[in-house]
Specification:
Blueprint (H helix, E strand, L loop, with lengths): L3 H5 L23 E5 L6 E7 L2 E4 L9 E5 L4 E4 L4 E8 L3 E8 L3 E9 L5 E9 L5 E11 L11 E10 L9 E5 L3 E6 L2 E6 L5 E2 L8 E8 L2 E8 L2 E10 L5 E8 L2 E11 L1
């Protein structure tokens, strides 16, 4: 499961080799506070056919999913560990229930309009401590439906989102960057790491993860996240030449997860 530091710059959902010498500390581009623009405008894909459900952007809700049977039975999920259960809800919708090991349960109802032009999702999460939150997302179709697949299949652009009052938007990210060190803070979670190829712990999170930093150039840093010594995903962050925006792209098994997230310097 993605941690808060990752979700802040994803949905969701951003370091192993020595790197070249940096400029003086005041000129280092990552230092400062960044606010994400949210998920409005992101592209979301579904492919539902032959009794299976695939969702490459379902990260943070138990995904990505690849050809999960739509049979109402629980199937093993690896990242994070737990189960996923998918069943049809009428001719136009699906229920996806994700149970994590000690992290709570998320039940999402995803429905396409009869004309195939709109897509709505209601996701209700019950955390391990019993707290319940919800999110509603509305999307519009991009391009055409996938031939010989369920009408919900295809590419969708998010146009609106609502949250429960106890489910606020991710907090701002604060980075401090020096020639050989990099710290990151989002809400109660933070890490303090160096560009030396070693693993450093995530502090204050509910998930035990480590991060290894890799500096690719003066404006590009990569985080490699591991659980129990096994890489789960990585996040590549790029600060624009003018220092005003930060673009973050998540990868798993060398392939991008979903679309990039943009944050603005506060």
């Amino acid at each position: 499961m993605a941690n808060l530091l990752q979700l802040t710059l994803l949905s969701a959902i951003t370091l192993i080799a020595a790197a070249p010498t940096y400029a003086a500390a005041p000129d280092l581009p990552f230092t400062g506070t960044w606010v994400t623009r949210g998920t409005i405008g992101q592209i979301y894909e579904l492919d539902v056919r032959n009794g299976t459900y695939s969702c490459p952007q379902c990260d943070g809700n138990g995904g990505p999913y690849t050809a999960v049977p739509i049979d109402g039975a629980e199937h093993k999920a690896i990242n994070p560990p737990g189960t996923v259960r998918i069943r049809a809800v009428g001719p136009f919708g699906f229920e996806v229930v994700r149970k994590g090991e000690g992290t709570g349960t998320t039940r999402a109802i995803r429905t396409v309009s009869p004309d195939g032009r709109k897509f709505e999702e209601l996701a209700v999460t019950e955390a391990a401590n019993g707290e319940v939150t919800w999110t509603v997302r509305r999307r519009e179709r991009v391009g055409q439906p996938i031939a010989k697949a369920h009408l919900i299949s295809g590419r969708w652009k998010e146009v609106a989102m609502e949250r429960s009052l106890n489910n606020p938007a991710p907090p701002p990210m604060t980075y401090t960057q020096t020639a050989d060190r990099f710290t990151a803070t989002a809400g109660p979670e933070h890490y303090d790491a160096r560009f030396d190829g070693k693993e450093y712990p995530l502090i204050g999170g509910t998930i035990k993860q480590t991060v290894t930093l890799r500096r690719l150039d003066d404006h590009t840093v990569e985080e490699i996240w591991k659980e129990n010594g096994v890489e789960v995903d990585s996040l590549r962050m790029v600060v624009s030449a003018d220092g005003k925006t930060l673009t973050s792209t998540a990868y798993r098994n060398g392939k991008p997860i979903g679309t990039s997230i943009i944050a603005d310097r506060k």
